[in-house]
Specification:
By secondary structure, the protein is of the alpha+beta class. It folds into 4 domains: about 160 residues, Molybdenum Cofactor Biosythetic Enzyme, Chain A, CATH 3.40.980.10; about 45 residues, Molybdopterin biosynthesis moea protein, domain 2 (Alpha-Beta Complex), CATH 3.90.105.10; about 80 residues, Molybdopterin biosynthesis moea protein, domain 3 (Molybdopterin biosynthesis moeA protein, domain 3); about 70 residues, Beta-clip. About 20% of the residues lie in helices and about 30% in strands. Strand 8 and strand 9 form a beta hairpin. Helix 1 packs parallel to helix 6. The longest helix has 19 residues. The protein is elongated. The chain binds adenosine monophosphate and magnesium ion. The site of adenosine monophosphate has 19 residues, from helix 3.
C-alpha cells in the first residue's frame, strides 16, 4: 500500500517516450506542440485600418477625398497632405496616412471630408508588426492548442503543425453481473456504466477511446483480453476485479501477462484497490469497479498521466483552496476525496459519499481532499479538484 503522494510520484516519475506526428490545423485542438512556432512574418503584415472611415494625410479638419480602399484591395495610393481615402476595416492604409477617422465622426460634402475634431496621429491604424514581429516566438514547445491558438496559427498561414501524439487508450470492464444499458436486466445483474463514464471523462479532456471490451469474471478470458488489448493500446484502463474477492482476477491476469506492478493499493477512500503497472512502454491502470471510486481514481491518477503521455504542460485538473461552507469531520482513518459542489467561491460536501454512489458526483463539480481523521470548520480552506 502506498500513500496518495507516493502513488502520484510514481506515476509522474515514469519515463515516457513521446511520439510526434504532423496534423492539419483543423485536427489539432487539444494537442500539444512538439515544436516551437515563430512568426513567419510581421503581424499584421501591413498597416491597416481598425475602422470603417477615412484614411487621412496630415492633421486637419478638412480633407479632399481622392479614392477608396476596401479590405483585400492592393492600395497604390500615396497620399499628399490634405488628402483622404474612403477606407474599411482591415484594408491596407495608403502610404503617408497619418490617421484613420471613423465614419461616424465625419461629414461628407461632395468630395470634401469634414471632421468634428482634428485626429490624433496614428489613431485607428493597426501598425505592421503591432502584434508580432517576424521570427518572434509565438508558442513554446508543449503549448496545448486552444481554439484561439488554432486561430493564431491559422492567421500565420500555417496549415500543418508538429504535435505530440495522444496515447491510444483501451478500456476493459470486468464483472459477471454487468450488462449493457438498453438490454433486459435479469435478477442479480446491474448495468455496466463505468466504461461510459470513463470514456466520457477521457473525451472531456481531449482523449479518445481506441477500444472497449466487457469481460466476465473468468481468469482465462481476462488474461487473454488483457494480452490482446495491450497490443493495440498505450494505456489500458481496467475497471473492477482488482480487489481481494474470490472472483477478482485482474491482478493475477496482469502478472501472467508480464505486467510489472508499480503500485497496488493506495491509502485513500474511495479507490483503495487502485493498481498501476507497466509492460515495456505500455501502462496499465486497474481501477476499482465501484462507479465513484473508478471515476475519482481517473481524475486524480489517470488523467495527469494521460496529459504527460500527450506531451502536455497540464498536470491534471485545476486545484483550488476554497473555504468550506459548513463544519465537516472526516471520521475515516484514511485520506478522502469527497464529492462536493463549488459555488460562489465556497465548497459544500454533498450527501451520498459511498464508493458506489455516483449521483453526488454527477450533481457536484469538485472533489474535496481531506486528510484522515480531520475536522474542518466552516470558512476554513480545503483543497478542491474541479471535475467539471
Ligand atoms: P469490483 O471492483 O469488481 O469488486 O466491483 C465493485 C462494485 O462495483 C460492484 O458492486 C460491481 O457490481 C460494481 N461495478 C463493477 N464494475 C462496474 C461497471 N463497469 N459499471 C458499474 N458498476 C460496476
Ligand atoms: Mg467485480
Amino acid at each position: 500500500m502506498v500513500s496518495i503522494e507516493e502513488a502520484l510520484k510514481i506515476i509522474s516519475n515514469q519515463p515516457v517516450n513521446l511520439k510526434t506526428e504532423t496534423r492539419e490545423l483543423s485536427k489539432c485542438p487539444g494537442f500539444s506542440l512538439s515544436e516551437e512556432i515563430r512568426a513567419p512574418f510581421d503581424m499584421p503584415a501591413f498597416d491597416n485600418s481598425a475602422m470603417d472611415g477615412y484614411a487621412l494625410c496630415g492633421i486637419s479638419k478638412e480633407y479632399n477625398i481622392v479614392g477608396e480602399v476596401a479590405a483585400g484591395d492592393k492600395s497604390d495610393y500615396k497620399l499628399k497632405e490634405g488628402e483622404a481615402v474612403r477606407i474599411f476595416t482591415g484594408a491596407s492604409v495608403p502610404e503617408n496616412s497619418t490617421a484613420v477617422i471613423m465614419q461616424e465622426k465625419t461629414k461628407v460634402e461632395v468630395s470634401k471630408l469634414i471632421l468634428e475634431q482634428v485626429p490624433n496621429e496614428g489613431q485607428c491604424i493597426r501598425r505592421r508588426g503591432g502584434e508580432l514581429k517576424k521570427d518572434q516566438l509565438v508558442f513554446e514547445k508543449a503549448y496545448t492548442i486552444t481554439p484561439a491558438g488554432i486561430g493564431l496559427i491559422g492567421s500565420l498561414g500555417i496549415e500543418k503543425v508538429e504535435v505530440f501524439k495522444k496515447p491510444k487508450i483501451n478500456l476493459i470492464t470486468t464483472g459477471n453481473e454487468l450488462i449493457e444499458p438498453g438490454k433486459e436486466k435479469a435478477a442479480g445483474q446491474i448495468y455496466e456504466s463505468n466504461s461510459y463514464a470513463l470514456a466520457s471523462a477521457c473525451e472531456q479532456y481531449g482523449f479518445s477511446i481506441n477500444g472497449k471490451e466487457q469481460i466476465k469474471d473468468d481468469f482465462q478470458a481476462i488474461k487473454s483480453g488483457i494480452r490482446k488489448s495491450l497490443k493495440s493500446s498505450d494505456v489500458l484502463i481496467l475497471s473492477g476485479g482488482i480487489s481481494v474477492g474470490d472472483y477478482d482476477f485482474v491482478k493475477q491476469a496482469l502478472e501472467e501477462n508480464g505486467v510489472e506492478e508499480l503500485f497496488y493499493k493506495v491509502f485513500q477512500k474511495p479507490g483503495k484497490p487502485l493498481y498501476f503497472g507497466k509492460k515495456a512502454d505500455k501502462y496499465i491502470f486497474a481501477l476499482p469497479g465501484n462507479p465513484a471510486s473508478s471515476l475519482s481514481c481517473f481524475y486524480v491518477y489517470v488523467l495527469p498521466f494521460l496529459y504527460k503521455l500527450s506531451g502536455s504542460q497540464k498536470d491534471g485538473l485545476k486545484q483550488f483552496n476554497v473555504p468550506i461552507s459548513h463544519d465537516f469531520e472526516n471520521k475515516a482513518d484514511r485520506p478522502v476525496f469527497l464529492k462536493a459542489n463549488l459555488v460562489n467561491n465556497h465548497v459544500v460536501i454533498l450527501n451520498g459519499q459511498g464508493s458506489s454512489m455516483i449521483q453526488s458526483m454527477a450533481l457536484g463539480n469538485a472533489l474535496v481532499f481531506l486528510n484522515a481523521e480531520t475536522s474542518v470548520k466552516k470558512g476554513e480552506n480545503v483543497s478542491c479538484l474541479l471535475i467539471s
